[in-house]
Design a protein that fits this description.
Length: 328
């Protein structure tokens, strides 16, 4: 199913998942066998849709390629995309729209269980049918809550057209293939995802120890993982680490550096990584002449503000809200 929302080409194309989120807020995350009282809410989510909303609300013309069920969840996704001026391209199959169960504690930490549903049916063939859309964009962003084959197809089209490809290798248990990495210009793992990827190159580091690694060592790990391009490791309250390949510094003065986290009064970290990725893609598309560090700074601020409100997709800030919260 295709829906064109604008006569102008999308600046950012996001390929990924849509979920209907079922959220329970409680004082502590439930332990095995526990029954807790809490508050319930439902809303839109999925890494792909969260990122598409973040890109659109950051001011980029955005298209979202996904798979949906022919059900209430799918109809809701289409209506939301229309409301956000997102060009939605959805492959419709027999599976229900994806869903997720999310528990959020009093500190804003979360545990999530995802039922893939239609997300598992997004096909490389459908992505091939969207080749013209991808080739006209500035930035193509993918994650791995949908099949790796779909992400590969999307990034192949981006590479063939000379477009910037961003891969968010999430969730950590997803299959990040050598071909996917070879097609990636900017890789954006969090600590857990980075630890999983580093194990593939023979380096065993616990996720909570990555932020404490010496910068030259972390840079070396990143370069062994992604021989060309840029790696951005998001580190939560420790900010993020940027590692460029030699000769590919994207306007930055140094090959590696750290960006401190922005101060935030976090109430819910659900979707913060998606906020970062969508905002990063939008900033890269809207200001291609800016140094990469400026894009990371914008994305960091955007993600910080997203944690100050509850929810996933609908917690994504609008650009004017960000400018008011972080002037200058």
């Amino acid at each position: 199913m295709k829906r064109s929302k604008s006569s102008s080409p999308a600046q950012v194309v996001v390929v990924g998942s849509f979920n209907v989120d079922h959220v329970w807020r409680c004082d502590a995350l439930p332990a095995a066998g526990a029954t807790l009282g809490g508050e319930y809410a439902s809303g839109p989510g999925g890494k792909g849709f969260n990122q598409a909303i973040a890109a659109a609300r950051s001011g980029a013309r955005t298209a979202f390629v996904c798979a949906l069920g022919n059900d209430l969840g799918g109809h809701h996704a289409r209506a939301l995309a229309t409301a956000e001026a997102i060009d939605l391209r959805d492959e419709v199959g027999i599976a229900p729209t994806g869903s997720a169960g999310i528990f959020v504690d009093a500190q804003g930490r979360n545990s999530i269980v995802v039922g893939a549903g239609a997300n598992a049916e997004l096909s490389a063939e459908f992505l091939d049918s969207q080749g013209e859309l991808i080739a006209a964009a500035s930035v193509v962003l993918a994650q791995l809550e949908t099949p790796a084959e779909a992400a590969v197809a999307a990034l192949r089209h981006a590479r063939a057209a000379g477009r910037l490809s961003v891969l968010n290798p999430a969730p950590a248990n997803a299959q990040t293939t050598p071909e996917l990495l070879s097609l990636t210009d900017v890789l954006t793992p969090n600590e857990t995802e980075a630890a999983a990827l580093f194990r593939r190159i023979g380096e065993r580091v616990e996720p909570d120890a990555i932020a404490q690694l010496e910068s030259p060592k972390l840079h070396a790990f990143c370069r062994e993982l992604l021989h060309g391009g840029t790696v951005v490791v998001t580190l939560g309250v420790s900010g993020c680490f940027v590692s460029h390949a030699e000769g590919q510094q994207r306007g930055d003065e140094t090959l590696w550096y750290r960006v401190p986290a922005e101060s935030a009064n976090a109430v819910d970290t659900t979707g913060a990584g998606d906020a970062f990725n969508g905002a990063l893609a939008a900033s890269l598309a809207l200001r291609p002449e800016a140094p990469f560090s400026a894009h990371v700074r914008y994305a960091s601020r955007y993600a910080a503000l997203s944690t100050e409100r509850h929810g996933a997709a609908l917690s994504m800030p609008r650009r004017d809200e960000l400018d008011a919260r972080f002037p200058g």
